[in-house]
Amino acid sequence: MTTDVTIIGAGLGGLTLARVLHVHGIPATVYEAETSPAARSQGGMLDIHDYNGQPALETADLMDQFRGLILEGRQAMRILDPDGTVLFDKADDGTGGRPEVQRGELRQILLDSLPAGTVRWGRKAGSARALGGGRHEVTFADGTTLATSLLVGADGAWSRIRPLLSTATPEYIGKSVVETYLFDADTRHPAAAKAVGGGSLIAPAPGREIFAHRERGDTLHAYVGLSEPQDWFAAIDFTDAAAATARIAAEFDGWAAELTALITDSDTTPVLRPLYALPTEHRWDRVPGVTLLGDAAHLAAPNGEGANLAMLDGAELGKALAAHPDDIEAALTDYEQAMFPRSTEATAFEGAEAHGTDSDNNTAHGLVAAFTRYEQAR
């Protein structure tokens, strides 16, 4: 394959694509806005599924490295009522198909698997335009440009490559999460640590939710969900940690102390993360020389599938290009025809059945029933 492959975005999906292409002897260059791999926190835990994320890593020939990252016991799950009653307590017996790893560590094994210089750091894409004949030009924030015969947008929710293919933009889903961390939890925050247990915790109620999981190093990482318009959050000064924490905690008045401690006892300033999504069946007509993967293609409300789908997209696109080295359009057509229904099915099923996005799952009892249905369906 003589075509130059340009990937915008060094997240898990873009790096998986670059790695699979490298396995097949196809060079690629990845352009990333961040200035280095350590420029920012890479998020928390990821459960890597045996039906999409793990097959992607197998295609990338990285399963041995992946197994070395798995945090044992983290597939345990607890569902609590807001009053602290434990309604569901599933132990990790080692047979589950969703082992947990730290996102940053997973990204690092992908980076380490690529030839030096594959990722160009500090190159933020500003815009892209068609040049004709399937070629495109990317303009970076520093004013420099590049032209390429194959452009892949792996640049997330606010992709600068997506407008070449689609007019769709992410829309606020009516919910945001506030992110907190509790460090040295077993000794400094024992009640919260006991509530979370060895893996993850979900405590849902209509319009409110606390989700937390146990990371490496005795750290609890919590996502406090609130279904409110963006104006509601805009009225909170998140630069004032104490005031913001108190305001969010007030929305959970009456909840068990071991649950609200995940808000009030945060060892970090609470971080607001509004949630956005693209239309569920987002797709586009084939445009020569360009495609999308991951959140750039099918951003959805958090449902446990996003990172897994991004990696599978990258792996499948890499395989398609390797299978059609002299026909890029055939490769992109094969990839997109499989990716569109795959992403639609994953976001619709996982969201409704396992993560409380429908009206029946807005209580702890409803979520227990949903998980029971989900396990039976699997």
TrEMBL record:
UniProt main location, coarse: cytoplasm
Catalytic activity: a tetracycline + NADPH + O2 + H(+) = an 11a-hydroxytetracycline + NADP(+) + H2O
Subcellular location: Cytoplasm
GO biological process, one term: response to antibiotic
Domain statement: Consists of an N-terminal FAD-binding domain with a Rossman fold and a C-terminal substrate-binding domain.
Function statement: An FAD-requiring monooxygenase active on some tetracycline antibiotic derivatives, which leads to their inactivation. Hydroxylates carbon 11a of tetracycline and some analogs.
Name assigned to this protein: Flavin-dependent monooxygenase
Species whose genome carries this gene: Streptomyces roseochromogenus subsp. oscitans DS 12.976
